[in-house]
């Protein structure tokens, strides 16, 4: 295999003009979440296998208790802090922390102040019903 093609993904460099076609891109989570115009929106910043990576920002919001029957979900706190309430208590999540909610676990996020997060879930997990109608691509 040609070295230039090997160094990039899927022929990302056309040797005739060094044009980028499929360059693997890095993503800055803070830049993406800070560019969002509004609260309670989800912005897809990537996919990993069959998982969606979404950034979101929320403030003064408590979602209803819900369960994801078929998959785990992960929250990574980019900025701020929030709680995840379970049937047996609260877990406080601060900037730099992440928490994995196992499938079948009844929970709800509670955001008392501005929080910016990365949410990782299986494709199709988020929907209008479990995001209060705020989910967008």
From TrEMBL:
Top-level taxon: Bacteria
SUPFAM superfamilies, A to Z: RmlC-like cupins (SSF51182)
Domain Cupin type-2, residue spans: 62-120
Entry-linked Pfam families: Cupin_2
Coiled-coil residues: none
Protein name: Cupin domain protein
